[in-house]
User: What shape does this take?
Amino acid sequence: MADNMDSNSDTIEEDGVISLDDLDTLLADEDPSFSNEMKKMSEDEELRKAEVEVIDFEDPEGDIAEESKVSFPEKHPKLQKLIDPIKNLFRNIKLKFEDIFNSVKRKLANLLLWFKSDFPVIAKKQALDFIEATKQTAQKIKDKKHKYSALPKRTKWGIYTTIVFVVSVGGVIFISTKTSWVPSIKEPLYESLEGVADRVIEIEDGSTLKSLYRAFPQPEHYVQLEKIVVNLKRVNNYTLPMAAVEYYLELDSTETAIEIKDREKMVIDSVQRTLEEFTYNELKTKAGISKMKAAVRYSINNLLNQGRVNKVQLKTFILKP
Assistant: This one.
């Protein structure tokens, strides 16, 4: 084999080129197993039928140009400016939640550690203190009992009498605040007619009710008051608002009209006092006028001995700012 290797080496050195047959012989001598594998592959029918594709990796003329890779921020800078704040926001929220979670986790761990280490000691100490306090209280009660047993009978009867007296007085005071147990000289006033009425009628919610003053209608009367001129309520020191008003009063009966005419000066004075409480800005609006009419009607009705004013209407209404 050495002679063969030497002859082959001479052939390579002389010619500078090795033939395929010499290469096969050299491989068979050096690695017989590799030669057998190659022989099996050459005899394999599937490998013979396989198509071989030759790829030319060289592109000397530059027909295939490599596309330069461009990042998303470079390709869409405006869109990236919108995305960055949102990403930062979500990142901050995530970090915040992580901080909260870690904080809660640490507190729970500290709590569990406290329950394992400090709580048993504290609980034991509190229990011992409670037992000791109970023992001291029981001893005090026992001492008081011995002292009470040593008292003479007269003193004991005095204590019993005092306790009974205090309890009796307290019971009388309590009953007096709740009910009237002392007989009344006069008949008590009825707080409700339900107990003495012949029958009780329950009115359902939402039912249509009629005012007591309109339950027995009478011919209505109108009375015109004299012209009233008043100074309105001032909101600053450099204005003097005034109002001139003439009222029509719609009354519920003739007797009410007669009373208003007889006491007209008192009625006008009451109306003036009512108007003086309003400002110019209030009376220049519809809501303010409605409020003023209601206030005038209320003030006149408080003066009347009988009857009432149903409506207040305006004949003249002048405002000066």
